[in-house]
Amino acid sequence: MGMPWKFGDTLFNPEEHSIPWIAGHASPGPLLPDTFMDVGEGRRLGILNGREANHKEGDKIKYGMFSVGLFIYDFENGKIDWVSPEPFIQDSQAKTITFASQFVEKGKGSGVLYAHVDDSFVRAYTINADLIKSLLPD
Asked: How far, in Å, are 11, 12, 32, 54 from residue 24 at the CA level?
């Protein structure tokens, strides 16, 4: 704080990938502790907030939906190794935004992910490590 800083490398640019749920915008959420799920030495599973690409409808722009997906971050090399091809949370009541911001581990392989829905309220999602494993690459 108070010291000069500079921008680092861009770790993930949604325009460079063909992943529809995150084609417009990307924003990292929390990195999950390895006590919740271990994805390998020097890596962490993270929550990724993504937005579909905007579409033009006549003179108006229709903004894409925000959803929540996963990524694997290699913190030893400062790079993102993998981004989920599909979101793992799309809130059925959200009109535009589901934005995950906080994770609290509740026990072995269980936790609560908190997300803002439509900038109106906060929803708590119980997530299970065993179920998430099926979404990850081998």
From this structure: 15, 12, 24, 7
SS3 content of the chain, % helix, strand, coil (to 5): 10, 45, 45
- Cα 49 to Cα 97: distance, rounded to the nearest angstrom: 10
Cα(90)–Cα(32) distance, rounded to whole angstroms? 19
Angle at 127 between CA 53 and CA 20, to 5 degrees: 15
Please say if the pLDDT value at position 1 is more than 80: no
pTM: 0.87
Q: What are the tokens at 69?
A: 């997906």
Judge residue 55's burial from the number of C-beta atoms within 10 Å of its C-beta, 0-12 exposed, 13-18 middle, 19 or more buried.
Answer: exposed
Nearest to 100 by CA among 117, 85, 84, 83: 117
Task: Say how far apart CA 127 and CA 112 lie, in whole Å.
Answer: 6
3-state secondary structure of 64: coil
The DSSP call for residue 113 is E
CA 130 – CA 119 distance, rounded (Å)? 30
Give tens-digit pLDDT for 115-133. Answer: 988 888 889 999 999 999 9
